[in-house]
């Protein structure tokens, strides 16, 4: 089983270390602060603050390096990868994929990089919030664009399986569009809905009358703004397309309301879409032999159908 | 205790009959069909299908008449009120208030009308779904515009209290604006979010990756479209104002995303608003002596502060 070097020990990196260790992997990593490293060591993990040392060991062990730092902290880490372990097996756990791929191409271009996005989280953060079960049954997107190293692809998939996750292959631009639509746009809608609903200070009638529709529709506006900003701002182009799609639909709805007063088109389309979501079938777990010329295209197709890759 | 005549025995009317009867009131009513009337009779309630007979009895008993039919079915019922019990004590249970007040002014102008909106509901409908506990702790808005009959106001408030609800006084236009913002707009946002998120048939990647933010943000898009259309379309003017407020905020956000890429203003405002909602204090229950010149203005102020009227 391949060893794993985790750079960054926040909620995701810390959970990943715990899950990989439990699965019997050799795991080490680095934290951003001495205090976090000490907390991880106290919990029995091999964590320091010397990135170069961790990467040197990764190069020697031919380990899989997982970058689990925020998008905004990526550049210096990738520069150390390029300096110390330039051709290492590399993946990441950042929630957008095109921006990370661009950064890798710029700062660690020789790395054998296959992007990843374990789709799990809680409202907590930091090493202490980590949980070996965080990825159980969660989708773990693995980049499946043409030209990727299939050997590293298998490493990333095996790590995801070891953590209990479902492997969802996707082209990185399609991933970013999908998360813009089903995660980032919902966060912006929740923010706007909360602002409109709360109205002016001193007029608390609306808040007093609010019930389930407002509570649910604004729930994720309670997320820490820094987290929302990091994921949304890192996905600018795809998010802009999703926002424009939404604005087009809202504009048509506004026109209908102002002219005929009719909202049936909007409400019925939304109801159908929600019903389609609610009836989404369980993904099929399809084993894929990770070789052959068209395997990445095949993987992307499988992900578009909503299925997941099973262990071969 | 004043007798209660309930016209309409769906979820709201049926629950109201059960709750009022449990509180010791004399209650009778009418259903739209023989089958529903028979079901109510089988449950021990005095329900027929003859509206004129029910209203004649209401006039004789000086009962409080509660119109609990959908907005679209209001006109014929109000015409019977005007013909049979023209000056009766009248309230309603419809979810918008300006449109009902306009209809009463047109079709039953002599009635002593004080509008009401018990804010409770389930995804179920019909007599069988009724529940004497439906209004427990729920807000029951009672119209508090100048010129209303304080004697009938007390009747409506006492019925709400008898049903276990909290009495929230509000001007009818302020009520309609508030529910547009915290109930009707959330339903439209959920519909648009579901449509954008579900995307095209055959591309199921986004649905496969959807998690809590999408599930919560689209939940009320699962409501029966007829119910959503009835409440939203009946509140056209106020809803249009809420939609324009939201579109203004979304447009500013879109501009920021496209130009600087920054979303902090949107996300932080939404977070603050949600936190303000989450920290809404429990309403104070303030007894109000229902007489005096300015009592209705006083009641409206109390409602604007998010408080409720306690039994005097």
UniProtKB/TrEMBL annotation, chains A, B:
<dbReference type="InterPro" id="IPR008927">
    <property type="entry name" value="6-PGluconate_DH-like_C_sf"/>
</dbReference>
<dbReference type="InterPro" id="IPR050812">
    <property type="entry name" value="Preph/Arog_dehydrog"/>
</dbReference>
<dbReference type="InterPro" id="IPR003099">
    <property type="entry name" value="Prephen_DH"/>
</dbReference>
<dbReference type="InterPro" id="IPR036291">
    <property type="entry name" value="NAD(P)-bd_dom_sf"/>
</dbReference>
<feature type="domain" description="Prephenate/arogenate dehydrogenase">
    <location>
        <begin position="2"/>
        <end position="287"/>
    </location>
</feature>
<dbReference type="Pfam" id="PF02153">
    <property type="entry name" value="PDH_N"/>
</dbReference>
<dbReference type="GO" id="GO:0008977">
    <property type="term" value="F:prephenate dehydrogenase (NAD+) activity"/>
</dbReference>
<dbReference type="InterPro" id="IPR046825">
    <property type="entry name" value="PDH_C"/>
</dbReference>
<protein>
    <submittedName>
        <fullName>Prephenate dehydrogenase</fullName>
        <ecNumber>1.3.1.12</ecNumber>
    </submittedName>
</protein>
<dbReference type="InterPro" id="IPR046826">
    <property type="entry name" value="PDH_N"/>
</dbReference>
<dbReference type="Pfam" id="PF20463">
    <property type="entry name" value="PDH_C"/>
</dbReference>
<keyword id="KW-0560">Oxidoreductase</keyword>
<comment type="similarity">
    <text>Belongs to the prephenate/arogenate dehydrogenase family.</text>
</comment>
